[in-house]
Every structure is written in C-alpha cells, then in structure tokens.
C-alpha cells in the first residue's frame, strides 16, 4: 500500500471539485473557536519587542516547556517543543530506529494513522501491522507475539484516529511491558487526550517507564492545527534510554533549527488562561454530534463503532465497501465526503471514516440515511 | 570536529553568565524592526476566521507560494515553503543523498556554516571541505578537483556566513557546471541575498539549471528569525532531477506535516506591502556598522575581511587565536562576545567572527581596540 501521498488530499480535492454542495467530513480540523487567550497571545506578540521576533531556544520557549513539564509531572529536561505532533513522532521514531544495537522494525496497528506508515516507508523501516478488533481495541498479546529483538518501536495512538478507541490503562501498561522486554520504545501519540469520552484514558507517562516517549500537540486541544505546536516527553537523561532526548535535540536542531515563536507564545498564553469549561464544552459538543450521527447511521442500517474518544466514527454499509470509488460516489450522489477505510490499512477496507468536526453533522447524517437507508 | 552541538549556545551561555556587561556579537539575529506590515499581518491573523487557524496546505499557503514564485521567476510547483532555511537545506540535502544511483558525498567549504556540517554527520554522509581563500572566495577549480561521481551535493552559502564573501556570478556558474558534470545538486543557500553590498550578487537560479536547488528564508530579510518561514526552489518536475521536489514534499509532510500558518500569513502581508526603502535602510545600517567596526579593528592592529555581504566580520589578532578559551577571555576581560573561528572549521582557527547585529557596534569596537590595540 502506498502511504506516501496521504489520500486526505485526493478526497478533499474531489469534494471541492464536486458539482454540488458537499458536507466535508474528511479532515480532522476542529471547526470550533480557539480559546480567546490564544488570539490575545498572538495580538500581544504582534506588538512585542523586536527581540521577541528572533529565534526561540531550539527546544522551545523556556516558559512553555515549564508549563508543559508541570502539567505532565516530568522534569523539564525531558520536554522538547516540536512543530506539531508530526515532528514529535518523527523525532521519537527516528531516535528509536537509530539506537545502537537496536532493531529496524516498527510495530503499528491496522488500521493505522497513515503518517506512521508513511514514515516507516520514508525511513525504510520494517513495518509490522497488528490488527485491532472490531471495536478498535488492541490486544497486547498480539503485539507481544509480533515483537522481537528486531523491534525498535511500537507506535500507538489513543484515543485513536481512525477508530475512536480509547485503550484502557491495562492495555497501555501491557504495551509498555512488551517494549521493556524487547528493549524497544513505546511511542504513545496522545493528541486526542482532551477528547476522551470514557473517562478511562490514562497517559502512557503514568507507567513511569524508561521505554516510553509520549507525544502530543495543541492542534486538537486548542483547535489550532495550523499553528504547529506539539511536544514530546522523552525518558529521563540519566536512565537507560537517556540518549533519546539528546538525539532528538540534535535532529530537531538540524532539520528545523527551532519552532515558530508567535505560535509558541500564543499557546503559552492559552494554556495559562483558558478555563476548564473551554475543554469541557468542546467534548460535550462532540458527544452530542456522535449521538445524532450514530442515530442516523442506525436509520441507514449501518454498522459502526461508537468512539470512546477522538473525532471519528467509522461506519460500514452493506454492499457499499469503503473504496475510493464509493467515497467519490457518496460525494457526488449523497453530498457527504468521508475517508475511504482502505486509506488506513487492510482491515478497514469495507469501512468509511467520518470526522465529526463540522457543524453540519445533522445534515450529513440525514443525507446518509436517505441515500443508504 | 564535533558539529553536533553548535557552539553558539555555549558562547551565549558563557556571555550571559559573565560578571560584567558584554556586547553580544555572537548570533545572527537582526536587532532592527521587522516591517510594520508583518506586525499588521499577525494582528489580522489573530482576528481571523476559525478556519484560518487550521492546517495550511503542506507545501505552504498558495498565495505565499505564488508571491515567492513570481519574485523568483519560477513555476509555483517548484516552490515548497519550509520551516526556515534550515528545513529547506535539510530537504534539499537529504533529497540529493537519496537519489537512486547517486553519491554519498557532500562537498562544503571550510570555513563552513556549522549546521551543514552537523547535517552531514547526522545523515552519515561523506563530508569533504574545500578551503576558501583569505577573503572568503571559493575557487571553483578546487571544487571540481574534489568532485567525483560520489558527489551527491555541493552546499554553498553566498553571501556567506561566516566570511561575508559574495561569490561573483562566474563562481556560481562554474559551481553549477561541476554539479551538472557529476550529476550532483548545487544547494545554494541564499538567505543573505538582501544584504549584498557589492551589487554583484546573483542567485544560482539565474543559471537555469536542472541541478540547482536554491534555498532561502525571510528570517534575515524581514528580521524575523523566530517566525520560521523559508523556502526551497527545486528543479522543474519534468526535468532530469524532477523527482527532487516530490521527494521533498513527502519528507516535509512526514517530518513536519506543514509549517506554522500565522507566520506564513504575516510574511505574505509583509512581502506585499513593505516598500524597497525598508530593505535599503537595513543594508545601509549594516554598511555603516562595518565601516565603524573595521576602523576600530585597524586601530587594534587586527587583520580582517571586509564583508561583501551578510552580517559578519572575521578578524585575526596577533598572538590571540580564535579558540574557545580566548573567546571566553574576550568576554571576561574586554566585554565583547564573538564566535570562535574554530567553530567553523580548520582554516579559520585563528579567527573570531563578530556579528554586527547589535546597536552597540561602536562600543564593542572601542573595547576591542582598547583591549587588543
């Protein structure tokens, strides 16, 4: 499978070129407001001193790193601010692959977030995909069966894109144990941590293991995918995998020098001043959308997974597999754009992923129920 | 030599910890105002629609790419907006090294901009350094003598950091010919193109060769090193090295997803609305600083190169070589912080680089003249 040109763009272009009104449920861009403090932070930055327009430290603004470290309960030296979670995952994965005496295999899930698979291709790593069950849950025993001393990293994402699964703490702990037993790294991408509807989500950092890198970003949390502020928390420098953070600092410096400062300043302001109600409101909005959308899927006679977290519902329609061709038909004939399941791997070829980050969820649901019901 | 932790940070930390007032002539951060339109662009962005806070296209905002393409006289498909010139150089260099049947050698100059050397280390490339002459000029015949079919890329920087040399068009044309003759890529980093005092600077794009990648950024041009907006212009897609741009798009997407949107929006606004006087004023300011600083170096009995471009003056003081130890002495005893020449390679070990991006150039010059004169 060719993960090198993510199909997001193909589908979005097709939808944009359609000869009718289309509800966009393709990409994971929040459609709600960023916090007011974030806009305030950008305005203040615009009026700031000349020196604030110059390079921030390569690892990120010190105050932002402190704020992150305190929230995550880790030493600041473990935190690198990155150009979104994309770069955080890149630094963590390349670091794991470059360890001396380490393996060349990346274990991922099927379905997989396409960027992970694309990264495995780019880095010429051996990619192993462990299928999840129908509800999106990953059985750590399957990961243990796949793992070996050739395993450099296990890359997981919970709350999950595309399945919406939230791995229970036992799963994460068991995955940490697999990583430890094979001297590998568990890369835990937790960008949807603020969109957990189960109340059971726990960060992989809770395991307090030297074999975990947790990655995250403010893209989804603060509804600012375009700002590109993320971070990774690496194992402590004085531990057995202490070289990972040093390696990541070097790569970050060579490939990006540093991240964008106005974005970092705005995120810092937002973290400090945004009340808990902001996050709760966005969760509640998604919960309501999920209810309404899955009701319509019931009317359409579809199978689907009710997400425990993240922004997505995967659905399967009888006799209408999730191929690119059918996704295009859905755009043209029903006016709803989703992502073909085949874009995420073998196991979800029959499914279509719908992103609930549009105010037009009801309309889309009605259209699907009418067209496929 | 260990280029992996650029010595900028060591020197800056030492200067910050000094027990006295120190004039910082270490890093290349402009100390003058960004254009007013850039601040305006950030303010407007802060007040923008929710959708503007979401992912820009991976290759950069379409309007910004159009603006760049028109200014450079190239097709827009050749332009990728990057996280500063750092990422542009990274994409160009990795792309050259990954070409099928291509070489594994990078030819650079000595002295070298430390990030290029650090990148060669990180990518495990064979690094060959071609010494420049006392004035900083590169003899293309030396590059031709060093080049072979193992050469993947020749990486140059003009106007140059650290020497201040501006390569004449004949040099650049001859370097292009070497790249063409060995099926290699000339990576021409032109971030100081707006700080040419010779009037003779010409972009490597003028050669109209399929073997050139020109990299650039707005960091120095618009005095915004912290915004991280740069770009690379790759060879045309339908030419013999047409795969470079596709490869770069993929790597950029995998490692960064996309760049920061407020920074791109602000740069676009600045490009459209900033009058030519802004750039001329900054050049003039630097010209004056160079005159005053080199006058003081004369009084100190130092040898130096008068820069044809960029922000830097390299100087050599009799019996006072540019080691880290002497740089620290200069901080403690004269109150002036420069960069040790040895940070840039073998050939400038005796020299110290002074960055003229401080309003306190006169003061620093007096201190040097007093201490070393």
From TrEMBL, chains A, B:
Gene Ontology BP, a term: amino acid metabolic process
GO MF annotation terms: pyridoxal phosphate binding; transaminase activity
Documented EC number(s): 2.6.1.-
Keywords carried by this UniProt record: Aminotransferase, Pyridoxal phosphate, Transferase
Transmembrane segments: none
Keyword Transferase included in the entry's annotation: yes
Domain of life: Archaea
Residue ranges constituting the Aminotransferase class I/classII large domain according to the UniProt record: 21-367
CDD domains: AAT_like
Gene3D superfamilies listed in its UniProt record: Type I PLP-dependent aspartate aminotransferase-like (Major domain)
Cofactor dependency: pyridoxal 5'-phosphate
Family annotation (Pfam families): Aminotran_1_2 (PF00155)
Sequence similarity: Belongs to the class-I pyridoxal-phosphate-dependent aminotransferase family.
Subunit structure comment from the entry: Homodimer.
Protein name per UniProt: Aminotransferase
Organism annotation: Halosimplex pelagicum
